[in-house]
Amino acid sequence: MKVESLARPAVLTQPTYEPGKPIEDVARELGLDPAKIIKLASNENPNGPSPRAVHAAERALEQGQLYPDGGCYALRQRLATEYGLGADQFVIGNGSNEILELLGHVFLGPGDEAVMGDPAFVVYKLVTLLFGARAVEVPLVNFTHDLPAMARAITPRTKLVFVATPNNPTGTANDPAELLAFVRGLPEHVVCVVDEAYAEYVAQAPDLRPLIAEGRKVICLRTFSKIHGLASFRVGYGYASPALAGLLNRVRQPFNVNAIGQAAALGALADRDFARQCAQDNRAGLAQLEAGFRALGLEYVPSVANFILVKVGDGLKVFDALQRRGVIVRPVKSYGLPDWVRITVGTQAQNVRVLAELKHVL
Ligand SMILES: *Cc1c(COP(=O)(O)O)cnc(C)c1O
Fold it and tell me: Which residues line ligand 1 (CB under 6 A)?
């Protein structure tokens, strides 16, 4: 008897997540100098983490023999102050990806449905399938979530609706008033997941807190991986009603977020100027890339996030050619966009480089 025959059926058909390639892998495979490779494939922060976050993490290392605070008390208190919510309204995860999985644990099983955009962040679909539920994918319109169509896709079996704004991989945001009306219009049996991974880059991001206060079944997800430059530490969080946050806290592992990450996150929150500077640099970087694409005669999707879709012909081929020249971008064929690549906004110098290499390979 093969061990596979003992696995839950959903495991055997589960697609796998394809992350952006690490610099070291590309250097090894192509015989390149890692110091000359730039990675603009995973929407990481080109400014790195705040020095305050690094310092806090270093201090936490000294206490490495101790288990972390499983309840993330200090971080939840800090976030509660930041948001004007209760500490019991937060759940902290090993990246916001873990919270997506916790949502699956709490709400999804065979026979259930989850509604999501197509293309949207692939993890919504992966989590849905892993728990044996059905992924109902609603095509985007103009690269943006089609909220009226998503509302129409809801059935009595729908448990979760995922909306990322700004969306990944498109970089587009929905109108805040439209999003709030959408959430208010959802039926009682549906939980809405608003993924705000890139909200800090947007000037006018929607504020769902009034809806949480009204008792709507909505959870907002944020991460320290993007604007705070702490992707390696794996810290993300969700905020919702105490009841919804409580359900998620019930199914997480006792020590799901390590102490170094908790300390780094607190350090990052203490450095508002750094986050503000990152958002400002990102806006300049987007403008720089857009101007470069226009000069090359390339179509792009105007973005409000820290990455941008650009139409290059054969996306896989251009990805490959760029990689050989030491620039890692993200092909998005798996997202149904074979003619495009997704490029993370880099430093000014990195943006110059990617534009020059793009010109060369095209
Ligand atoms: C990057 C990203 C996240 C963050 O994931 P972490 O697990 O917190 O690193 C969440 N949602 C979307 C849409 C993202 O692009």
Answer: 43, 95-97, 121, 164, 168, 195, 197, 223, 225-226, 231, 236
